[in-house]
Amino acid sequence: MEVLVIEKECGSWKEAITCMADTLYKSGLVYREYGKACIDREEIFPTGFPGLVPVALPHANVCYVKKSGLCLLRFPKDIPFRRMDDPDQQVNCKMAFCAAMDSGNGHLELFKDLLTNFQDPDFLNQCLKLPVEELQIYLERRLFIHEEKIAVGT
Amino acid sequence: MKKRILVLCGAGIGSSTAMFEIIDDFCKREHIQVSIDKAALLDFRGDQECEVINSYDIVVSITKVPAAVKVKVINGIDLITGFGAEEVLDEIKTCLQA
Fold first, then answer.
1. Angle at CA A104, nearest 5°, toward A103 and A108?
2. Which residue in A41, A44, A119 is closest to B82 by CB distance?
């Protein structure tokens, strides 16, 4: 699974999702329709997560994914996303993790892994502070322990 | 009779599983006999399907539930945010004992 990290100022959550989807598309990980599918899904089931550091977790159905990947977009200026637990409220997000997984199980494992890490202030701090290139390496090391464990176990 | 909990998330990817495990661990720790299922709201469209949700004693959700859901709904978001998971678990416990 490929990890992409970018930093870009965006005007809205839609722009942010489009930016991540374009990045994933240019890397050959998703189909062109992936971005629109993420936006459509976000409209119905928003993903703004009001954690220790607020983040958003946009994603789309596995059918839009060619090869598993994750794109982290860090915002220089917070972007409001609607809250997953209450779409009538917004949460100002510092970054978004756009998940593109090619299997339902892959999605499940990645989200469980991310949600666990979102409770760790050190992980969040690294995500906010590390330079983009270093953060990419950090995430690869940090997030795929689980994948390795499965591989060893089978 | 064992009470039944439904853990609900929006699109059914990960967050309900994470909540399921936290609630399951808690109930085992507290020796609470309970049956827990998880589901995605995506699978419950329309009033007919809400009947299924209404067959549970408690719903723990991190997504907004349709108005047709009449059973007790607890917002489970803090189980996974790192803020006040104990309070949510206490609320679940209180409801189970009611």
1. 120
2. A119
**Cβ-count burial of B68 within 10 angstroms (0-12 exposed, 13-18 middle, 19+ buried)?**
middle
**A28 CB-contact burial (10 Å; exposed 0-12 / middle 13-18 / buried 19+):** exposed
Beta-bridged to residue A70, according to DSSP, are A3, A99
Give pLDDT tens digits for B40-69: 887 777 777 788 999 999 999 998 898 899
Nearest CA to CA, how far is A115 from chain B (Å)? 7
Query: Whole-angstrom Cα distance, residue B53 to residue B89?
Result: 20
Place of tokens 């949510």: B88
pTM: 0.85
Which string of b and e fits A105-140 if b means at least 16 CB within 10 Å? ebbbbbbbbbbebbeeeebbebbeebeeeebbebbe
CB A132 within 8 A of CB A121: no
B43 vs A100: CA distance, rounded Å: 21
- Residues of B numbered 29-88 whose beta carbons fall under 8 angstroms of chain A's beta carbons: which are they? 41-42, 61-64, 75-77, 80-83
Q: What is the predicted pLDDT for the residue at B41?
A: 85
What contacts B69, CB < 8 A, 6 or more positions away?
B50, B53, B54, B59
